[in-house]
Amino acid sequence: MTYSATWTNGNAQGRLDAGSYWVELDDADELAAAINRRRSVTYQGQQDFSSDLFSGAYVREATVGSAVSPPFDSLRTNLSTDILAAPLGGQGGIPPTPTAMDWLWPVDDGDQDKVIVSGAAGVGEGQVGLFQKLNGTAGWTDPTLSAGSTAIRAVHFNELRQAVEWLRRGRWELPVYFSASIFSPLPDTPWIGGAVANNGQDELRALGFVVARTNDTPPLGLVEAQALASSAIELTADANCTVDVYHCLRPLDFVSDPPTWNHYDPSTSASWASAGGLGQGDSAFIGQLSLTADTPAQLSGASLASALQSLMDGAEQNFLVRRSDTGVQTVAITGRLLVEFDLDSPPN
Fold this sequence. Notes:
about 350 residues, alpha+beta, Jelly Rolls
């Protein structure tokens, strides 16, 4: 669904009319929910604004501009710092995931898909400044809000709404952890990951996973979003080879019950539909890559976008890579996933 923000109060453009509208609790509540949505997308836990936002409460300057965690960061800090420059590596792993999170300018105005930065420290090549777009400065209107002396005005909320609406397209970089392989000559033995081999008779196939979303409630990461065809999976091999890439559809336990050539879940004797993991319901073909030794190559397009959409919607976050040409070498494989997405709408 194409992103289109919906605000309870406002004019036809979703803005509060200065001079004729008092900011209401609903307006702050909606911004808090929209901010928490973007915190979740950037792998950060939601913040509880209820100590300031409750029935009958006034909208305080601290809520908008100066509150710090605990209990929560202000609406401004959340957008311009916590979300725009989100902390990386929160999910651990080697390398840690996410390894990069960029918000991309979503408007077709000559700057589309440039990386959004605050602009307070300048704007570099391929970047666009949030505040330069917002109000032609390097910060919020009335950058310092003082309790008892600064009125909360419509412009403050209009800027927050506009920033929320612009922070809707992203490009996240996630490592692919090739943690297991499956080996046809030893079909019931788990194998070390990150390698593929095919001599024309026997095969070693690599299985890996990404953390595009977590199992938290609500989940952190990429949910309620649309994968774009500009997304890519990038693989690097230590020898020339050709590989086929699949979205593995089976649930896999890479730690305590790693898969084998015959079983995706050995502890329950759950077998692949076809030994090796390429049967109906086992995996879905994404595409083929010809790899030159030690040179990264990317695979993108509709099939990858479809696979990414399904995993963002709840499917397994696993990949299978096999060597589709033949040779005597066992080839080491590493990978990363570049997910480009637009947030769904609604909610904001």
